[in-house]
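Reading group handout, session on sequence-to-structure problems. Before we discuss, look at one worked example. The prompt was deliberately terse, the way you'd type it at a terminal:

> structure isocitrate dehydrogenase (NADP(+))

The input record follows.
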Amino acid sequence: GLEYRDQTDDQVTVDAAEAIKKYGVGVKCATITPDEARVEEFKLKKSKSTTPRYIFCPVLLTPYLSVAISQWNHQKHPYRATDRLIPGPGTLELVYTPAGGEPERIQVYDFKGPGIAQTQYNLDESIRGFAHASFKLASLKSLPMYMSTKNTILKKYDGRFKDIFQEIYDKEYKADFEAKGIWYEHRLIDDMVAQMIKSEGGYVIAMKNYDGDVQSDIVAQGFGSLGLMTSTLTTPAGDAFESEAAHGTVTRHYREHQKGRETSTNPIASIFAWTRGLVRRGQLDETPEVVNFAEQLERACVEVVDIEGIMTKDLALACGKKDRESWVTTKEYLAAVERRLQKNLGEETKL
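And the output record:
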């Protein structure tokens, strides 16, 4: 777990990523975020930066819930940043030393007292891969696409994203989009968030990591619960695929479970993480029975909520039901899914 990642300086995660690259498919479980409290609790070293990745977060729909936002997709792009506390007065500089050249020093700020600072960077190659992955997703789903930045403030950094996306769209995707009756447009992130809330959805948004982290939770809650959102990671070429639940480790529920108390944790996103992986594995191996099983399991998860009205606490509360009789425990929900799955598979066998 977390301690082993620390012992290996995160090499275990690199090895896992290489295995996914080799075999084409992987499923990731939720992991603990090593914040300052965790670092102290487990005596951890500073976590290394993760490798670039492209993340797509679809929300699972069930008409049983009162949905605030309809069919909204987002993509998150990674950034790497280094931050530090500034202990006292001094000058903060950004130094760039070109290969074989003289250092270029840019004075950032003259601190008069303690403060904080952060630097971040990205690569044109990474941004281009991000753009291609985004446009391919929009084309595949025949959905219009937006790219959201704050280029009015971060003129160089966010402006680079905007320019590269526009260049690639004009050269490689514009004709395809127009033929499908869809479009691409750049919007400021604050304008996009307002549009997201008031619109009926049905589009793809490409966002940088922090924006996507925040907005994905808004989207999930708009659909009823974080337990309804999955996350899939893919390379621009589509030759490596990883799926996971978009939520974390649900620590508070686990602590209750350790005390022997009942919990009503929504397992749907975790189930879909595995079924999405199975679907992709079945597609690669040309084993339709594997794909069918995974899709039938997904169907059972939705039908238990939508048709039978059996749901965990988070979904019941999203429906405005606050009495204890309105929800079941995690084990009871899983048992209902198993019954529904066996029923669906049995009906399929009879056909």
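Points for discussion. First: Residues 12-31+49-79+124-249 form a domain with the Isopropylmalate Dehydrogenase fold (CATH 3.40.718.10). Second: The chain has a mean pLDDT of 83.
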